[in-house]
Amino acid sequence: MRTAIIIALGLLTASLLLRLAPAGQRTLAAGAFTLVWLGVSAWNLRTGMSHGYTFAQELPIHLALFGIPVALAWVLWWRSSH
């Protein structure tokens, strides 16, 4: 459930950020979101590992937590620039 909540928060944040960013700043907004979301994902990875999970167990979850919202951000960026 925690994974779904974090992914949903990432999707909501990415869509709001790119919708509210001025057209000329959307590349910067998508890049900034990517970096910030990488930090959020790394924090979640560290938290999972501190609770006894191994890196191998956490990696697929980390990839989904990071990849899905970032992919949405760049798809929204691409759609707004074309």
From TrEMBL:
It comes from the Bacteria. The chain crosses the membrane at residues 59-78. Keywords: Membrane, Transmembrane, Transmembrane helix. This is Membrane protein YwaF. It comes from Luteimonas terrae.
